[in-house]
Amino acid sequence: MSRRPAITLVRGDITEQHVDAVVNAANSSLLGGGGVDGAIHRRGGPEILAACRKLRASHYGKGLPTGQAVATTAGRLPARWVIHTVGPVHSASEDRSGLLASCYRASLGVADELGAATVAFPAVSTGIYGWPMDDGARIAIETVRTTQTSVEEVRFVLFDDTAYEAFAAHLS
Predict the structure, then answer these.
(1) Residue 37 annotated among the catalytic residues of the structure
(2) From CA 129, how far away is CA 163, in angstroms rounded?
């Protein structure tokens, strides 16, 4: 059944969330990296990397395209699955907001395929990819609010007060 999910904000560590699916702000290689990606791979253990290597050996030989999403096991995380999505690098000269919105939509689509009721998202692309936090929060909240999904709760897990305040401003 499609509905609009409840949206909650948490200041904390996404790797500690007891949810059906955790969304990873991955790089296209799917083989780990820094920030959220590195934290998920470290805490989730080698099972996640092994599953990502299988994806690279089959459907995603050239990597996961920006704006798309794919699921793997969550390994040792307190979740059932990790949904990997590749956010766009922010550009001052090119509007890539559609790709950022696609990360949230595609992740919710994968969550629906999995039957996930609860999904934890980070603030995709707002770290090393340079997306301004306020705009990233606006796109995230608007996209989740307007995407039909069977997910019951979307939890934005925000690492610091700046991110939390930006998301709270767009949620109200």
Answers:
(1) yes
(2) 15
Find the distance separating the first CA and the last CA of the chain, reported in whole Å.
26
Residues 93-128 pLDDT 10s: 999 999 999 999 999 999 999 999 999 999 999 998
Under 8 Å between Cβ of 58 and 79: no
- For 7-53, write each residue's pLDDT tens digit: 999 999 999 999 999 999 999 999 888 889 999 999 999 999 999 99
Q: Among residues 37, 95, 134, 160, which one is catalytic?
A: 37
Structural domain boundaries of the chain? 6-171
Contact 22, 82 (CB under 8 A): yes
Helix 133-146 with 97-114: angle, nearest 10 deg = 40
The CATH architecture annotation of domain 6-171 reads 3-Layer(aba) Sandwich (3.40)
Please give the Cα distance from 132 to 135 (Å, whole number).
Answer: 6
**Residue type at 95?**
D
Residue position matching structure tokens 């990873």: 24
